[in-house]
Amino acid sequence: MEHITLLLGIVIVTALVFDFTNGFHDTANAMATTISTGALRPKTAVAMSAVLNLVGAFLSVEVAKTISGGIINEEGIRTEVIFAALVGAILWNLLTWLLGLPSSSSHALFGGLIGAAVMSAGWSSVNGGTVVTKVLIPAIAAPLVAGLAATLATRLTYRIGSRADDKATAPGYRAGQIASAGLVSLAHGTNDAQKTMGVITLALVTGGVLAPGSNPPMWVIVSAGVAIALGTYLGGWRIIRTMGKGLTDLAPPQGFAAQTSAATVILASSHLGFSLSTTQSCSGAVMGAGLGRKGGAVRWSTATRMFVAWGLTLPAAGLIGAAAEFLTKQGTWGVVLTGALLVVGSAVIWGLSRRQPVTHDNVNDVDDSDDRDDNGGAGADTAGTLTAAIEDDLKATIPAQPGASPEPAKTASV
Amino acid sequence: MKIDWAALGSVFGVSLVVTVALVGLFTLGIVGLSKRERATEQGGSATLAVSGAYACFALCAAAVGYGIYLIVA
């Protein structure tokens, strides 16, 4: 750890912050259905998920050797570019969290990397074909396959289970849900914590601290695992609410079918050579389970908002990443300014979230008297009322962040 | 740009089959166990249903074990 420069230090801290946001952004994937069906109490659920994420971080020895999986040309990438990419990914993660929208943290990171790399070295540094195969197709396929599997599984479990009464089957569904959710958490820890380890390792290599091709040092593994676990434990309650209550109403059998489908799709896809995104799989599974029950319905207004967020993730994180890279290119003051803007931007988003806090106490309280088709549950409600405020605040507070102001406006027009 | 349709197709197929099979097995297990309660209430026994239920759960546990193996490996 001897020759760590200021820039390298900033990149490492930023990478850990991203890991943290990744954790709380993705708690919903594993635990939203478990929490909304009451299989586990909210605090217990996030604690379990956090522990499994931490365990997962240590499980796999195969650390991501590339952070973008070939989407951008990582040869000769500069440390500033990684920093700028992380800034884009973090701000987009926080923004979607504020709006309570589940979106892929990996896509945000890819978007940030693409934006920063293009600003740094031009369009030739991006492999367009890989973007299609690693981002676009998985984003479309994941919700379809997980949704279809969850729909069929829900139908089946209702058909078989109709002969038994609810009280007798409830503990069983509960146990099944917890097991599937545990698998998703574990898989998340191995995949996503590895990603941050890859980022930090790459930064250390580009900074000349580590020899190319080296494995991450122990302190990197530990800090990445702890950061993602802390984030998970904090819980992205806004997203949990949208996924557990906002998209559809889930009964225990549906929660079980959805979570099992998500776990299966994630594991099958990552081991059959066509990785599908966790967030998209889980959201798709929840919607599929909603459609699979007789009389069940998906709140398409909330779902549409989520789809739009998915579509915007890459370009939006890319824009912020490009803007950040434009600043960091200017030299040390640019790096410091970008860091300051990141802190201010995050603080503003956090401040806005305090206007209508969603915590483990009220995560399941969705006002049923509301016209839900209109509001799409409280998560979406929050989104609607906050968008205008965010737009104003962002413009007023951080005018120098060209990437940050356009998306709230776009989201508002949805 | 080369899209690996075969891999995508097998992800579709495997996910569908495994999910439906697991959920079906597990539900059968749950229903089997609930029969025991009803049987005890009525003073009878439901040995077949219960052992069937445990067989279902064992298969599901094996699947979870295989899942953990896939994550670790």
Automatic annotation (TrEMBL), chain A:
<dbReference type="InterPro" id="IPR001204">
    <property type="entry name" value="Phos_transporter"/>
</dbReference>
<feature type="transmembrane region" description="Helical">
    <location>
        <begin position="196"/>
        <end position="213"/>
    </location>
</feature>
<keyword id="KW-0813">Transport</keyword>
<keyword id="KW-0592">Phosphate transport</keyword>
<feature type="transmembrane region" description="Helical">
    <location>
        <begin position="6"/>
        <end position="24"/>
    </location>
</feature>
<keyword id="KW-1133">Transmembrane helix</keyword>
<dbReference type="GO" id="GO:0035435">
    <property type="term" value="P:phosphate ion transmembrane transport"/>
</dbReference>
<feature type="region of interest" description="Disordered">
    <location>
        <begin position="395"/>
        <end position="414"/>
    </location>
</feature>
<feature type="transmembrane region" description="Helical">
    <location>
        <begin position="307"/>
        <end position="327"/>
    </location>
</feature>
<protein>
    <recommendedName>
        <fullName>Phosphate transporter</fullName>
    </recommendedName>
</protein>
<feature type="region of interest" description="Disordered">
    <location>
        <begin position="359"/>
        <end position="384"/>
    </location>
</feature>
<feature type="transmembrane region" description="Helical">
    <location>
        <begin position="219"/>
        <end position="240"/>
    </location>
</feature>
<feature type="transmembrane region" description="Helical">
    <location>
        <begin position="108"/>
        <end position="126"/>
    </location>
</feature>
<feature type="transmembrane region" description="Helical">
    <location>
        <begin position="333"/>
        <end position="352"/>
    </location>
</feature>
<feature type="transmembrane region" description="Helical">
    <location>
        <begin position="45"/>
        <end position="61"/>
    </location>
</feature>
<keyword id="KW-0812">Transmembrane</keyword>
<dbReference type="GO" id="GO:0005315">
    <property type="term" value="F:phosphate transmembrane transporter activity"/>
</dbReference>
<comment type="similarity">
    <text>Belongs to the inorganic phosphate transporter (PiT) (TC 2.A.20) family.</text>
</comment>
<keyword id="KW-0472">Membrane</keyword>
<feature type="transmembrane region" description="Helical">
    <location>
        <begin position="81"/>
        <end position="101"/>
    </location>
</feature>
<feature type="transmembrane region" description="Helical">
    <location>
        <begin position="132"/>
        <end position="153"/>
    </location>
</feature>
<dbReference type="Pfam" id="PF01384">
    <property type="entry name" value="PHO4"/>
</dbReference>
Automatic annotation (TrEMBL), chain B:
<keyword id="KW-0812">Transmembrane</keyword>
<feature type="transmembrane region" description="Helical">
    <location>
        <begin position="6"/>
        <end position="34"/>
    </location>
</feature>
<keyword id="KW-0472">Membrane</keyword>
<keyword id="KW-1133">Transmembrane helix</keyword>
<feature type="transmembrane region" description="Helical">
    <location>
        <begin position="46"/>
        <end position="72"/>
    </location>
</feature>
<protein>
    <submittedName>
        <fullName>Uncharacterized protein</fullName>
    </submittedName>
</protein>
